[in-house]
């Protein structure tokens, strides 16, 4: 099962969705701004890829955080609540291909992932 997590108006998410559709791959899109993201999923992602790769420190949401919130993002136990409250802090998209995770989108990486 393929699930793509992200925000629909994000350009990188749009590219990933377009690529998956163009390859006729059946996938589910999970809008974590509207649908949220549960603790268990975030814990799995953090364990698999780490906070450094998961937290988007380049966006406007990160720049708007105060120092206490930025410190909260560095600790796996406190980062979950922050990521749930501000899902734009999650790098996008997150691709879950049967439990194998990939963050971000590059067509060559997706092509390798799916043998295309």
Written overview of the protein:
The protein is α+β, with helices and mostly antiparallel strands and about 120 residues long. It has seven helices and four strands. The chain has helices spanning about 10-20, 40-50, 50-55, 60-65, 65-70, 75-85, 105-115, and strands at about 1-5, 30, 95, 100-105. A hairpin with a 2-residue loop joins β3 (about 95) and β4 (about 100-105). α2 packs across α6. The two termini are about 15 Å apart.
Can you give keywords for this protein?
alpha+beta; 116 residues; 47% helix
The backbone outline, from C-alpha atoms, is globular
Please tally the helical runs, counting DSSP H or I stretches of 4 or more residues: 7
The SSE string, one letter per element, is EHEHHHHHEEH
Helix-and-strand structural type: alpha+beta
The overall pLDDT, averaged over residues, is 95
The spatial strand order of the largest sheet comes to 2-1-3-4
What's the oligomerization state? single chain
Largest sheet: 4 strands, mixed
Strand content: 5-15%
Poorly predicted regions: none
- Helix proportion range: 40-55%
Total count of strands:
4
**How far is it from the N-terminal to the C-terminal residue, by CA?**
17 Å
Radius of gyration: 14 Å
